[in-house]
Each structure stands twice: as C-alpha cells, then as structure tokens.
C-alpha cells in the first residue's frame, strides 16, 4: 500500500505539465539518438547537463532518464533494418531482427521490438518501485569472484551461439577475448596487443567491432553477390500485426528476459549489453525451435529487446539507492544530479522523495510515450528498405562511418572499422559465426579483471570461487549448461 | 627533435610569461580571434570532462570572454592520445586542455611520449583530496588501527578507483610509507572507478578503499554504510566531510592533492597565456563558479602559469620517488 501511495505522490510530480513535456522531449530525443549510431546515450546526456543545470532536480532527472531509456528503445531500429546496431545494448537484436527484415518482415520485427521494449521497461519499473532498497543488497553482494562466475556463465552461451561448428565458434570466441584485453591492463599497467600505438592504449571500442563485423561485412557480402537491385523485394516491410499464436510465442521470452534483464542491470558494470545477450542465449536454449534462432525467429528479437530495456531501468537501482554509478551512462547521470544539488544514495528516499518517486512515475509515462511514438513511425522508417540497393548500401556505409567517427573523431578508428569489416567478411565466407566473437568481446575483459582481482584479494587461493555461495551456484549452472547438451547427445548416439 | 626543442622552450616560457604579463598590462592586449577549443582528454562524464564543461559554461554565462569555449572530448590512452594531438599544434593560442596528476603519472609509467614539460601551464584551478574509507561496522577506528592490521597481515586488500601507479595507488602507497610501512607491500586492488571500489567495500569484498573525497562525500553521513578514517588534506574539509580527521591529526605527516588545472599548446605566446591566466582568475571570483564548485565538492586552488609550472615539476619529483619504490617506473 505504501508503495502505491508513494507512486501516487510520484505521479503527482510526473504529471505536472512541464514534466510531461520533459518526458516527451527526453524520450523523443532519446529515440532519435538511439537510431543514429555514434551519438550514444553517454555523450547525449553529457550534452544535456548544461540544459538541466537550472532545472528542478526532479525535472532534470526525468528528462535525462527519458533520453537514456529512449535511446535503448530506439537502438533496435538500425539493428533490425541495417544490421548496424546504434547502441551496444541492441547488438543481440540484430541476430534475428535483420534476418526477419531480409525476409520481408521488417515491420513485424520492429513492432515486436517496440512491444518487447515497452513490456520489459514497464515490468522493470514495477520491480524498481517495489524492491529497489532491498536490491541494493544484491548489488553489493557481487564481488570480483561472483562477477567472474557470472561472466563464465555468460560465456557458456558460445556453445548455443555457434550454429554449425562448435570449433569455429570457439575460435571466434577466443579472438573476441583477445580483442577485449587489448590496451593497458588495469591490474599491472602493462600494454597488451597495442603494437606501440597510443590509439590502442584504451583498447578497441565495442561499437567499432560490432559495426565492422555485422554491418560493414554485410555490405561486402552484398557487393560480392552483385546483381544490382533486381531481387530486392518491393513492399519489404510486411505487416505490423502479430497473430494470436505469435503473441503467445513471445509472451514467455519477454516475461523471462525482462526479469533477467532487470537483475543484470542492477549489478554495477553488467548492464544492458550483457543482459540482452544473456536473455537471447537463455531463450535459444529453452526454445524447442532453438535451431532457427539467428535465422529470423521472433523470440530472438523479443528476448534481447525486453532484456536491454529492463536492464536500463535496473541500472537505476545502484544509482538511486547506493549513489554509485553502475555504468558510464549512470555515471553521467550521477554527475548531473550532484550539480543539481541532489546526492543519490541511501538517504535520498528520505531527503528527496520527490526526485525518487517522480522519476519512477515518469518512467511509466515515458514508456507509454515511446510505444505510441514508435509504432506509427515504423512504416515510415522501414521504407528505407525500399531504396534501390546501391543507395541502401551507401547509406549503411555512411551510417557506420559517421557512427564510429562521431564517437572518437579518430581516423584511426575508421581504419579499424574497415579492418573489422574485412574480418567479418572472411568469417562469413569461411563459416565462422560472428555472435560468439561479440559475446566474448563484451564478457572477456570483465571476466579476466574479476578473476585476477578475486585472486589478488584471496592471496592467490583459487578456493575463493567455490567458497562464495553465489559464485559456486553460478559456476555449477555454467557447468550443467555445458554438460547437459553433451550428455543428451551422447545418450542419443548410444541409443541409435 | 621537436620534443627536444619544446622542452627547452618550456624552460624559457615561465620567464616569457612574466614578461608578457607586465607587457600586456601596458599596451597591446591579446584577445582570442576565434572560438577556443577546450579539450577534455577523456570520455564524457569524468573529472576532466566535468571541469571543461563547467568552466566553459561559467565563462559563457558570466560573459567573461568575447569568444566561446567549445568543449571537445578526445579520449584514449588515459590522456596520451589527446596529448599527442595537442603537442603537434605548437603555438596555437586557441587550444587548451584540462589536466590533473595523470599528465605526470602516465608519462612516468612510460605510456605517453609527452609529459607536462611539453605543454604550457596556464593555471591550476581546483583541488580535491584522497579519503580512506572502511565499512560502517568495521573494527578500525582510525588510520593507525588500519595500518597496524595491514602491517600484521599484508594480504589485507585496499581497493582504489584507478590502475596501479595512478592517483589512488600513489596516494595510498605514499600514506603507507609515511606511516612506516613498505609502500610496495600494500595489497592494492584496482577497480575501474571510485564507485565500483565503494560498492565492493559495501559488500565487504575488500578491507578498505581509497578514493576522491568529493566522490565519497555523498556516501557519508547519517544512515551510511561507509565510514571515513581520514582525508589527505592539510586541514579539515567542509560540509559532510567536516567530521573526518586529516592524516596529520592522526600523527601521519602526509598530504596528497588531486589538483586540476588548465594547460595550453607547446610554446603558446606569452600574451595568450597572460590572457587566459587572467580570465580563469576572474572566473574563480564569480558567483556562478562558486555555486558549481561547492556542488561538485571542489576547493579553489588557483596558481598562475609560473607557480603552476613549478608545482608540476615538484609533483613529478615526488611521484617518481613513490613509483620507484613501487617498482612501477616505466622506461
């Protein structure tokens, strides 16, 4: 009941005309920013700090939070239509979203993404409202050993992401880990794989690799196939409508991935990207038709999209209840709040309930705005696929280059993009799956850092990983998820 | 070759800057002829970025300069990518960058070809201090308790928000050696930010944490899960940190500044240096600045170009000593 009263109080703030306008402006700007690669939510929020400086803290946070989850919401569009993820959290969406678009179901893929984002967002706000203070305990219970175990569990998904050849999947994953550890090693300050170049000291940005291996490689593949624009189907958008059967099919994945995504988001440092990958691989393993994932399965769009939006809301838990940022984006939000004179943390609920509950209530409104804004836009945006192929290819090319250059203003990164495009092309030609590489790239670095940090704390004693209950449970699940499919295969072979 | 010449020039520069100052007061005053590029050598959101955006905003809002300051982020290499770019732009009076101890630490670790002597000091603006934190229910009541425990069991871990050999590590290593311990023996666990280190402390994964006092201020006070044992300031800080004793009060003679300031391109003309020195000095007096500064937990620590240059040289000597003790000096 108390939560309901608080929420009513929050709505009282969020429904003030000016605040409604801020939510609307925030999610609108966020959607656009999410669609365009390069201008990610971090830089967009940094640009907004001067605007919010003079605002009421609740209004400022309402606006900035809107930009953040709006960007994650809108990020799926370019993943689905162009195979070019604009935000890291939406890479997994392209695995099935882009094949769907190629099969003339772009409209449906975008609609599913919008519904899944909306539901994922809304479910996680309920969680945020009801259990945020309790969850702050969960967030701090994850130390280096637990993070390591979680990353190991995440990496087991390589098995399910390698469709034909497990060996090729593992090779791709190893390359991904190698790319992830490039740059200055945080533990010792040693340079690794930098080839003496200052540009590589911070490693390679995730988006450069993702855009190269997915979008640019796709452009190269289409160029190699040639054939002008003839086989491009007209009316490639298809219907936005979902059949009752399809709704039933995606309901489970959306529900599960929303919960999973929220909890991933709560953990500082994990966030939307890891949440979406975990959601995707979990659904692929649970689904009876798991082998059609990656070929345009609607569940493969629903799962990561609900997970990444839920994770985005989840990342507000450590920010609002502990006052520590869980990600780069929430670090900018924290800075902005401090400038506005609000100190997030354990005392915020008592000192500034207006900010806390106002933002939570505004998120409900913002998610409805996003759905209402995005659905009618789908047919318009999806018409991009009606472009003649030469134009479409050039568009993807420009899109990728602006995305990479806009992030770092570095020509060196453009060359890297080209290199990863060629790598992606080679992988496609020789049947290496790209998803394990990307997954390993995201998880590898955190896994290694957490492992070494844990061992440094324990004085080199490996037992730390099994002495901690959370870590032990996660490692056992990881082991089971590897062993069970193998055991099943062996059993089938023995019976046959 | 270019490196050598600029180093020489940097020696001459402070004198030139002085001459410029007196000259500027009399006759031809230099003013910028186009917008000024103000570079944060890192991604948005960090300390440099906040400094660049805050000062640019205050200068514009208070109408202190005819031209506007454009905030530009050049991330990479802990600053090294931006420094390499700026070093190529010798003499350009329209390019400034935000700076802090990494301009000394990163070159000492051997990962930047350029160091502070390659650039023109403009002004030191603010400072923050280090703070040592433990969980609220920890048995350690003061720093001496903590160091006694660390001496008895060198395996006890102290978390920090930056890599080995960078600010937090240097700060705790220097403190440990002032307290009579062997600096290299502190089991320093680097996290990728003060926030992450503090979260880890709340979960009891490390024994203590060292981070920036400004960053920790929000975590202290009533109902907090963390407790502060000491700050590296020469005297007590204000606001929520007023209760926290200094290291010196606890009998450990050691202070550590996390200063931030502004530098310019190599060989920046003396008239331009004088112009910016004066501009930043005036900015520090404005209400807009004082309000932003208090909210961000910064303390004014202005030094003009010459004093800042001397200060940087002294810092380099001090840091290379600590890094040498830790075995982290690069080649």
UniProtKB/TrEMBL annotation, chain A:
Q: Does the keyword Transmembrane helix apply?
A: yes
Q: Which domain of life is it from?
A: Bacteria
Task: Tell me which residues make up the DUF112 domain.
Answer: 20-439
Signal peptide position in this chain? none
| PANTHER family reported in the protein's UniProt record | TRICARBOXYLIC TRANSPORT PROTEIN (PTHR35342)
Q: Any transmembrane segments, and where?
A: 20-39, 110-132, 138-159, 166-184, 204-224, 324-343, 355-385, 391-417, 429-447, 470-487
Coiled-coil parts of chain = none
| Protein name, UniProt field | Putative tricarboxylic transport membrane protein
Q: Which InterPro entries match?
A: DUF112_TM
Question: Which keywords accompany this UniProt record?
Answer: Membrane, Transmembrane, Transmembrane helix
TrEMBL record, chain B:
Write the signal peptide boundaries: 1-27
Can the keyword Ubl conjugation be found in this entry's annotation? no
The record's keywords, sorted A to Z, are: Signal
What's the domain of life for this entry? Bacteria
The identity of this protein, by name, is: Putative tricarboxylic transport membrane protein
Q: Which Pfam families match?
A: TctC
SUPFAM superfamilies given in the database record = Periplasmic binding protein-like II
**Does the record's keyword annotation contain Signal?**
yes
Q: Which family, according to UniProt?
A: Belongs to the UPF0065 (bug) family.
Native species of this protein?
Answer: Halomonas campaniensis
Q: What is the lineage of its organism?
A: Bacteria, Pseudomonadati, Pseudomonadota, Gammaproteobacteria, Oceanospirillales
CDD domains, per database record: PBP2_Bug_TTT
């Amino acid at each position: 009941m108390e939560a309901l009263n608080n929420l009513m109080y929050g709505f009282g703030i969020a429904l003030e005309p000016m605040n409604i306008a801020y939510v609307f402006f925030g999610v609108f700007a966020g959607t656009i920013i999410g669609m365009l690669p390069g201008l990610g939510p971090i830089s967009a929020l940094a640009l907004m700090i001067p605007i919010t400086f003079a605002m009421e803290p609740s209004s400022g946070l309402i606006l900035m939070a809107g930009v953040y989850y709006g960007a994650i919401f809108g990020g799926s569009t370019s993943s689905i239509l162009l195979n070019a993820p604009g935000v890291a959290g939406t890479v997994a969406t392209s695995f099935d979203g882009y094949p769907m678009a190629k099969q003339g179901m772009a409209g449906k893929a975008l609609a599913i993404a919008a519904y899944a984002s909306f539901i994922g967002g809304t479910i996680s706000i309920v969680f945020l409202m009801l259990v945020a203070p309790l969850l702050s305990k969960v967030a701090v219970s994850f130390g280096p050993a637990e993070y390591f175990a979680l990353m190991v569990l995440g990496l087991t998904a390589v098995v399910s992401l390698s469709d034909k050849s497990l060996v090729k999947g593992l090779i791709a994953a190893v390359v991904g880990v190698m790319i992830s550890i490039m740059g200055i090693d945080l533990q010792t300050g040693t340079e690794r794989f930098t080839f003496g170049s200052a540009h590589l000291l911070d490693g390679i940005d995730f988006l450069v690799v993702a855009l190269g291996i997915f979008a640019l490689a796709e452009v190269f593949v289409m160029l190699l196939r040639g054939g002008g624009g003839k086989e491009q189907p007209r009316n490639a958008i298809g219907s936005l409508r979902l059949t009752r059967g399809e709704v039933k099919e995606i309901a489970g994945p959306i529900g599960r991935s929303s919960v999973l995504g929220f909890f991933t988001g709560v953990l500082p440092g994990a966030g939307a990207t890891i949440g979406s990958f975990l959601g995707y691989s979990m659904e692929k393993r649970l689904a009876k038709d798991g082998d059609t994932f990656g070929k345009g399965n609607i569940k493969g769009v629903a799962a990561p999209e609900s997970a990444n939006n839920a994770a985005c809301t989840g990342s507000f838990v450590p920010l609002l209840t502990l006052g520590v940022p869980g990600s780069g984006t929430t670090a900018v939000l924290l800075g902005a709040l401090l400038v506005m004179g609000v100190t997030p943390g354990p005392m915020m609920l008592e000192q500034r309930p207006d900010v806390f509950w106002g933002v939570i209530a505004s998120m409900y409104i913002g998610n409805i705005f996003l759905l209402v804004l995005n659905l009618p836009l789908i047919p318009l945006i999806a018409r991009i696929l009606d472009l003649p192929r030469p134009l479409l290819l050039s568009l993807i090319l420009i899109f990728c280059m602006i995305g990479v250059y806009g992030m770092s203003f570095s020509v060196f990164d453009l060359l890297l993009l080209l290199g990863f495009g060629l790598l992606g092309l080679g992988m496609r030609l020789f049947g290496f799956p790209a998803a394990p590489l990307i997954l390993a790239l995201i998880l590898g670095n955190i896994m290694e850092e957490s492992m070494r940090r844990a061992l440094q704390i324990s004085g080199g004693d490996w037992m730390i990983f099994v002495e901690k209950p959370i870590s032990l449970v996660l490692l056992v699940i990881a082991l089971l998820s590897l062993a069970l499919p193998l055991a099943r295969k062996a059993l089938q072979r023995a019976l046959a | 070759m270019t490196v050598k010449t600029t180093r020489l020039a940097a020696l001459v520069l402070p004198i030139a800057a002085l001459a410029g100052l007196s000259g500027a007061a009399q006759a031809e005053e230099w003013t910028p002829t186009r917008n000024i590029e103000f570079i944060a050598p890192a991604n948005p959101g960090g300390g440099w970025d906040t400094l660049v955006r805050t000062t640019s905003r205050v200068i514009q809002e208070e109408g202190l300069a005819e031209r506007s300051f454009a905030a530009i982020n050049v991330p990479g290499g802990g600053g090294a990518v931006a420094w390499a770019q700026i070093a190529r732009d010798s003499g350009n009076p329209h390019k400034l960058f935000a700076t802090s101890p990494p301009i000394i630490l990163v070159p000492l670790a051997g990962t930047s070809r350029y160091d502070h002597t390659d650039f023109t000091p403009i002004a030191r603006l603010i400072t923050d201090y280090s703070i040592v934190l433990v969980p609220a229910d920890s048995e350690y009541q003061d720093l001496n308790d903590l160091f006694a425990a660390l001496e008895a069991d060198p395996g006890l871990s102290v978390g920090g928000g930056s890599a080995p050999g960078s600010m937090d590590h240097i700060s705790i290593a220097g403190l440990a050696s002032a307290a009579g311990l062997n600096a290299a023996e502190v089991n320093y666990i680097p996290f990728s930010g003060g926030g992450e280190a503090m979260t880890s402390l709340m979960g009891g994964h490390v024994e203590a944490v060292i981070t920036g006092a400004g960053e920790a201020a929000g975590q202290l006070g009533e109902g907090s899960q963390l407790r502060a044992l000491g700050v590296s300031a020469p005297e007590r800080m204000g606001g929520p940190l007023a209760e926290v004793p200094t290291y010196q009060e606890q009998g450990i003679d050691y202070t550590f500044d996390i200063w931030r300031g502004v530098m310019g391109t190599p060989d920046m003309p003396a008239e331009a240096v004088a112009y910016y020195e004066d501009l930043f000095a005036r900015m520090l007096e404005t209400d807009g600045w004082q309000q932003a500064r208090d909210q961000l937990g910064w303390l004014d620590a202005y030094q003009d170009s010459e004093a800042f240059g001397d200060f940087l040289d002294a810092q380099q000597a001090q840091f290379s000593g600590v890094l040498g003790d830790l075995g982290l000096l690069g080649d």
